[in-house]
């Protein structure tokens, strides 16, 4: 765990540095509330680990790792507004703390800081821009064209969650100056992890309590949101099996990459296995 904690600490330090330079101070305080309230930091860790696995240095990946975490947090701010969710990571969501207008401005601020970090590399800008298009289409689909089958749900999950995971991994590969095949394979791995993560999230929403989750439970059913359980009427056990299949596919994609750091690879493998058994 010390291995991962060191990388989380580096990401956290860089996040703090980004927030500290934001002006005006009121906006900086709002970004601090959103970004520094906690979180698993899965996406930035994926960026760092992929970079290391492909022979890059940790420092090479940090700006991209922080950038993708900022994009993720910006999307969460909007999710909470749409869902009218007043709890995030055990604290008040941004709109509950500051109001809708200020929360939207905070989301914009997060995106602005993120793209400043990506702007040094054309490939990074393209990867993140494509991911945001996918994410936006996913959010729109969830609101106005909800899936009614498992196939449609999978398309939504790839857009809404898989896209940012894919971007996180591809950014790590780009930071390591990897070849296009490795970038694509790393992205395939992470997209599958992201979809498995979303599936498990749906199961937890249906079965866990709010205190354990750190956010309201039962939101999918209450808001008629298209979770895997709601769309397919699968049992939680069957839904978990679907998530495990995605995890296995992620591991297969990862195995096709020629790596230089076996320890980083091992943690990426562990992540693919962990996302389907996590409890929050």
Automatic annotation (TrEMBL):
CDD domains: Trans_IPPS_HT (cd00685). GO terms for molecular function: metal ion binding; prenyltransferase activity. It holds the Pfam family polyprenyl_synt. The keyword Transit peptide does not apply. It comes from the Archaea. Belongs to the FPP/GGPP synthase family. PANTHER family: GERANYLGERANYL PYROPHOSPHATE SYNTHASE, SHORT CHAIN ISOPRENYL DIPHOSPHATE SYNTHASE. It comes from Halapricum desulfuricans. One of its GO terms (biological process) is isoprenoid biosynthetic process. Keywords: Magnesium, Metal-binding, Transferase. Its cofactor is Mg(2+). This is Geranylgeranyl pyrophosphate synthase. InterPro entries: Isoprenoid_synthase_dom_sf (IPR008949), Polyprenyl_synt (IPR000092), Polyprenyl_synt_CS (IPR033749).
């Amino acid at each position: 765990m010390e291995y991962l904690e060191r990388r989380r600490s580096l990401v956290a330090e860089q996040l703090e540095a980004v927030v500290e330079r934001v002006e005006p101070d009121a906006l900086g305080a709002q970004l601090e509330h959103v970004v520094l309230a906690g979180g698993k930091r899965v996406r930035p860790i994926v960026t760092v680990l992929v970079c290391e696995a492909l022979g890059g240095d940790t420092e090479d990946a940090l700006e991209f790792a922080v950038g993708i975490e900022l994009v993720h947090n910006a999307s969460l701010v909007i999710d909470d507004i749409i869902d009218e969710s007043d709890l995030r990571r055990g604290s008040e969501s941004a709109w509950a703390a500051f109001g809708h207008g200020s929360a939207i401005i905070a989301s914009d601020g997060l995106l602005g800081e993120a793209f400043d970090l990506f702007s040094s590399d054309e490939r990074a800008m393209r990867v993140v821009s494509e991911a945001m298009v996918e994410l936006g289409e996913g959010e729109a689909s969830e609101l106005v064209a909800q899936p009614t089958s498992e196939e449609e749900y999978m398309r939504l999950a790839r857009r809404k969650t898989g896209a940012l995971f894919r971007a996180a991994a591809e950014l790590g590969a780009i930071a390591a100056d990897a070849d296009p095949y490795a970038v694509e394979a790393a992205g395939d791995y992470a997209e599958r992890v992201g979809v498995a993560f979303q599936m498990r999230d749906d199961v937890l929403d249906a079965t866990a309590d709010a205190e354990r989750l750190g956010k309201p439970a039962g939101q999918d059913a209450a808001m008629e949101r298209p979770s895997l359980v709601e769309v397919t009427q699968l049992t939680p056990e069957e839904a978990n099996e679907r998530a495990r299949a995605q995890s296995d596919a992620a591991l297969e994609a990862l195995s096709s990459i020629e790596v230089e750091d076996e320890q980083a690879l091992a943690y990426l493998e562990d992540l693919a296995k962990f996302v389907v058994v996590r409890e929050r």
